[in-house]
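Subject: Re: docking follow-up (magnesium ion)

Dear J.,

Thanks for your patience while I sorted out the input files. As discussed at Tuesday's group meeting, I've set up the holo structure prediction with magnesium ion included as the bound ligand rather than trying to dock it afterwards. The sequence and the ligand SMILES I used are pasted below, so you can double-check that they match what you have on your end before we go further.
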Amino acid sequence: MGAVVADALNKTFRVLDHRPGLLGAVRNLFSAAGRDVSAVRDVSFTIEPGEMVGYVGPNGSGKSTTLKMLTGILRPTSGQAVVCGLSSTADRRALARRIGVVFGQRTQLWWDLPPMEGFRLLRHIYGVPLPDFERRLEELVERLALADVLDVPVRKLSLGQKMRCELVAALLHGPEVLFLDEPTIGLDVVVKEELHTFLRALNADHGTTMLLTSHDLDDIEQLCSRVIVIDRGERLHDGDLASLHRRYGHVRRISLQLAAAGEEPWALPDGAWVERSEGRQVVIAFDADRVAAPLLVRGVLSHVEVVDLAVHEARIEDVIKRIHRGPDRPLPAAGRASPPPER
Ligand SMILES: Nc1ncnc2c1ncn2[C@@H]1O[C@H](COP(=O)(O)OP(=O)(O)OP(=O)(O)O)[C@@H](O)[C@H]1O
Ligand SMILES: [Mg+2]
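The structure tokens for the complex came back this morning:
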């Protein structure tokens, strides 16, 4: 039995007619006037205990809706979610004690209270025995370096401090599964890296299963070996990062440090283009389906003097764009004159 099982989950929202006046109101009286928005369609997957899985897709693709169904916040239109062996609908209350939820754009703490008071309230809500609470709190406060802010009202905290407090709030009852919806939104690079370190340690030390959504694909690369891609409510890919790269990651890059600046243009083969050129630093992108990396490197080396060179795998940004673009739309044409790929 997986820690998280999504079994043919569907969610359809009925959106009402917002036309003003009588016409809109009359239309809304008859349900036929509403429009159905299919937010999640037939999504199935199983996450094993201890896995850290990324859930990615463009805006409005159904990520948050899926998480809300898995955590019992929303009832699926059809299909079911089973988490820690509990149904997210029938066993909703029991489930709440076994999972932690962090929504990056919402808080479960009390705005005017210091976090410490919020934590105490949550202990009562979840019925956490005092010794367990104290032990966990001590560990979390130390790992997240929160000792100095425990008595400051939440509204006065920085975004990074708030997010770290959110994590404490989500973990005080020792959940087996943690759902994170955009946990790094708005955070700077340093705080983001601290969060990555914390989540990795949590997984290593407590075996916490995690499903996280993010638009910051660095989060996914840093934390998850498995990625589920969703688009327009449908699951497009479920596998390890490497297989995602193999399947869609056709754009690769070579970064070069030239011996001297200004040695352009070069004759690049079809399917390769200069993506960036700043002084002696140059990045060449290429479609790995059409261009063999060794040939490209040899060609470049025969034209310019290079002091350093590295070949990079595709980035997930490109991978997702590729999924969107579909297999048929060609990549930019060859050479210096070609437009840079959309970023
Ligand atoms: N309560 C709701 N009522 C009506 N439509 C909704 C509701 N919640 C979500 N939707 C619609 O369902 C679709 C999926 O939304 P969802 O929030 O799950 O996407 P998302 O992948 O989390 O997007 P984002 O990356 O912007 O957070 C969107 O078309 C959205 O407008
Ligand atoms: Mg969302």
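A couple of observations from a first look. The longest strand covers residues 35-47. Residues 189-206 form the longest helix (18 residues).

Let me know if you'd like me to rerun anything.

Best regards,
T.
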